[in-house]
Amino acid sequence: MGRAFEFRKGRKMKRWSAMAKAFTRIGKDIVMAVKEGGPNPDANSRLRAVIQNSKAVNMPKENVERAIKKATDKDTANYKEVLFEGYAPHGIAILVETATDNNNRTVANVRSYFNKCNGAMGTQGSVEFMFDHTCNFRIPANGIDPEELELELIDFGAEEVFEDEDGILIYAPFGSFGTIQKELENRGLEILSSGFERIPQITKKLSEAEVADVEKLIEKLEEDDDVMNVYHTMEEE
């Protein structure tokens, strides 16, 4: 198995555990998708993907429809995706993905979390290069051979395909998202969920006490409503 498999195994059940947080994230994703490509999922592949993800976290259909309708209102603020970089204690690189309608607020909050937890915010590009930006798709297993599927999808950008208890996962570089989404839809394969992740190229093993120091910062960041994802180079069990 490759790095994507190990990364997914390490993060499983640790993040996105709060349903309210998941719903907040989907709502922001819907606004950004509608503002970018319109409210019709048939003509908006990004919105189509977000709706698939809403089903994966059991978000009620009426919530999704309400969010789409709200996003079409000209008075609804758009969210801007902003990436923050820095270091947690013990030399652990941190990437923070946010979606905000008030950048000044988000910058101030993120900086305060780093400062309070003995970390340090970095400049743009200071740690991003330590992570591979990937896209992923989950489809039902339904008797599909992951190795055969991987061979068939290599030409579309797939780098790693594996099965777990929830189905088959497909990982590819960030730029291959649209190509693979289209190919899966052309094949009539149901996409249970899809998204983007940043996989650390190298991880660092810490002691139990050091892990607690880093987790304190990660938890502070993840509690913020503007924060969508937090990635790090700490080795996870």
What's this, in brief?
By secondary structure, this protein is of the alpha+beta class. The chain has helices spanning 3-11, 19-37, 45-56, 61-71, 103-116, 146-153, 177-186, 208-223; strands at 80-88, 92-100, 120-121, 131-139, 160-164, 167-173, 193-200, 227-232. It contains eight helices and eight strands, in the order ααααββαββαββαβαβ.
In N-to-C order, the SSE pattern is HHHHEEHEEHEEHEHE
User: If helices are DSSP runs of H or I spanning 4 or more residues, what is the number of helices?
Assistant: 8
Strand line-up across the major sheet: 3-1-2-8
Structural class: alpha+beta
Percent in helix: 40-55%
Largest beta-sheet details: 4 strands, antiparallel
Task: Name the shape in a single word.
Answer: globular
Termini Cα gap:
16 Å
Rg (C-alpha, Å): 18 Å
List low-confidence stretches: none
Q: Please indicate the percent range of residues in DSSP E strands (runs of 2 or more).
A: 15-25%
The overall strand count is 8
Q: Mean pLDDT, as a whole number?
A: 91
